[in-house]
Amino acid sequence: MTPDLSSEFVGIYSPNPFWLASAPPTDRAVNVDRAFKAGWGGVVWKTVGVDPAVINVNGPRYGFWQGDNHRVQGFNNIELISDRPLGTNLEEITEIKKRWPDRALIVSVMFPLDEAIWAECLPRIALTGADGIELNLGCPHGMSERGMGSAMGQAPDLVEAVTRLAKKNTSLPVIVKLTPNVTDITWSAAAAFAGGADAVSLINTINSIIGVDLDQMAPVPTIDGRGTHGGYCGPAVKPVALNMVAEIARNERLGHLPISGIGGIGNWRDAAEFMALGATNVQICTAAMLYGFRIIDDLTEGMKTWMKGKGYRYLTDFVGQAVPHVSNWNMLNLNYVSKAFIDVNRCVGCGRCHIACEDTSHQAIEKIVDTGRYQVRSEDCVGCNLCVAVCPVTECIHMERLESGVDPRTGLAINPEPANWMQHPNNPLNQPVVKPSLEKKD
Amino acid sequence: MSNTTLIEITLDEPLLEVKFRRLEKRLSDESAYIESERCYYCYDAPCVSACPTDIDIPGFIRALAVGQAARAAERIIQANPLGASCSRVCPVETLCEQACVRMHEAGGPVPIGLLQRYAMDHFDLDSMKSAESVEIAALHAKPKVAVVGAGPAGMTVAYLLAQAGLMVDVYEAQNLPGGLNESGIAAYKMLDDAAQREANNLLSHPKIHVHYGKALGSGLSLPKLREEYSGVVLAVGLQKQRQLHIPGEDLPGVVSAVPYIAKMRRKEPVPVGKHVVVIGGGMTAIDIAIQIRLLGADDVHIAYRRGEEAMGASTYEQQLARDQGVFIHHYLRPVAIYEKNGQCGSIQFQPTHILDGQLQDQGEMVTWSVDQVFVAVGQQLETESWIAGTPELQLDSRGKILVDEFAQTSLAGIWAVGDCASLSGDLTVHAVADAKIAVSSMIADLASDMRSCV
Predict the structure, then answer these.
(1) Nearest CB to A302: which of B33, B43, B68?
(2) N or C, fewer C-beta in 10 Å, chain A?
(3) Contact check, Cβ <8 Å, B38/A69
(4) What average pLDDT does chain A have?
(5) Is A302–B66 a contact, with Cβ atoms under 8 angstroms apart?
(6) What is the dotted CATH code of the domain comprising B136-239+381-453?
(7) Torsions phi, psi of A142, nearest 5?
(8) In the listed set A307, A325, A343, which residue is the last one of a domain according to the structure?
(9) Number of Cβ pairs closer than 8 Å across A and B?
(10) pLDDT digits (tens, 9 = 90+) for A57-81
């Protein structure tokens, strides 16, 4: 049984769920052609706008944060939307769609809130043969100062209005790309839903200053002594994106709005995580910018290998499977007790778990005098997991659930019945109501 | 005078475990992860160009980095069906790793060989697939081809042809497959029956039929094979042990290294001397020196008539031998072996040097007392028993079968690969590279024949 990666998203079919996000890699025909040759399932064409086209800076557009091994962890850009005429983009889109009919081709757009423009441009886009429209409501720099991009995306009423405008002027599916630069992503998603969006895609980049040049005393990337805030992406933003995807996926009022997951995806596992949290497909940019389109092999082969191992035949077998298990804190089982255990045979004696626990947690890890290795005192361990995070050795420290007996820390018997905060006696809501006295104290 | 005999030792599993396991270099899970993360994932990577079999090295390392060792192994096997053997025997410091772009950085090159070993160790060899390639599946009829020899080159040819959809008959002189991979390589490199398991897997392809105990000149004739098959691949290796041609060479205690290693690998008892000299400068000399040392020889000396730079053994192998207490001597040419108590008792050398690029004698003879001498000066193609029937088959000046860049011999419809072929290098990985060339040449030929028939 070979797993089948073919994907359907709001009626748009692609041979795999991996689309290139709207960004420099999808800026022009030559790139997109190479991407499709490499095997990408779909492309969201770099955001087009009205003529005259925008102008980009002529200095550095990107800043980055490199972690160990010089690997880019976070990436920030101050590039604007397409700086080529709308007509040129549409001609190339037409040609590419003709050449690659089996791939998904979505056109990302950013127009001002002016109905005449939408009424003129969306039909022109439809004529290219493109499969859908994505609304760029997320770009946090440059365009936002002109009242577009995240300036629209941050105001739910504008999100709704612009979505409505788009839907009114095209019969193509409309995907609303959301900005993460908001207080609550579900408000934006609800607005898109109310405006008639067929789907949402998220996250766009996070507003950021990636670093400061301490000689020039200016943010990087620095253009003639000045820098500006840009859009943050790359592996570092994945946790933010995963949460936002999950928040929308588990929100009942959003009526199973289809989600295209974006944010720091670099390999099959990242993609599978987004999809488990409810994304029907995923979009990728930074990883391709860092390594080239060839990463699609690793994405498709890796995903197939994993699916085969799990017995999943279709993507739909696992999309959303993790959503029912995402809950609010107050629904977690407070009777679940786990403790850290150190494998003395693997312990190298670096002492990092000890000092982390001793200084900043619960003083539960001590040195074994004879051997120089470390052990956990269960009577002090709260099961916080910090030692697992700092231990440099794989599988040296693990967490283990106490199934029965007594928790040596609390002296209380392990209760096999789950109980959450809503049921906990310490919850003020569960305490007898004491009406405050109105009498003044003397 | 009574003959003394050397102690006989059988290299069985417990002994292998005790004596040889510690020579094995392997990566732990965390080291494999850390090392895989060090790979830059180069585009058009120099390491791939440096691999004779074009393994997609950054590709398989990336699969390791994302936690899919078995997929990494599949990627390796796609390019090199002997990926497991090669990960154990390749002199990576002169191949892929020397080309690694991190070569001159702190921390050195990515340990590609060890990562490949790690990937292959996490792969179920029994799960090797047998997918037919589209290329040949399009042919109307499925021709039948013959492969003579089931060593590294022959096995790879057979496997790739079978994968391409052809019926393959393999003829092997011995009663088990593997060739030099099975018999000529030190046991410590092939622990856990690695070579045998790999060989059995390749040859268990449903389109391959192996006939054991059949060799050219004994049960097989090349003209007849040509008649019966659409194509014939010779992968017979080199069977004749080169000799020193010095007095005393036939004394008891003077042993050809390759048959001795073969016997050892078959777990038959072999004599182990106390004072041992190995003549030669290649991988086999190192292999036998290390093994005999670990099996209890008091002192082991490798004597090579040229300098270190001319040695066929890799620097890594030489160092490994020195680490085990083996001495390596250069510029010593063996002159005679003398008898003592009915077997070899001493060996005499003429020191040499290089003058005007020529190897010349220089200085006083030296004589060492010895009770065992291994001859590891290479092998030759044996042709006397079979070549008379095909006088058109040309040999090169070293007596190997002459081939062109497509591994084709001077006889149409016959290819030659591996050690017996004139253009091949002598490593396992070269045998695989050869096999790939021969297979694509053969498939192209058969396909054009088919087309012209229609």
Answers:
(1) B68
(2) C
(3) yes
(4) 94
(5) yes
(6) 3.50.50.60
(7) 70, -65
(8) A325
(9) 32
(10) 998 999 999 987 788 999 999 999 9
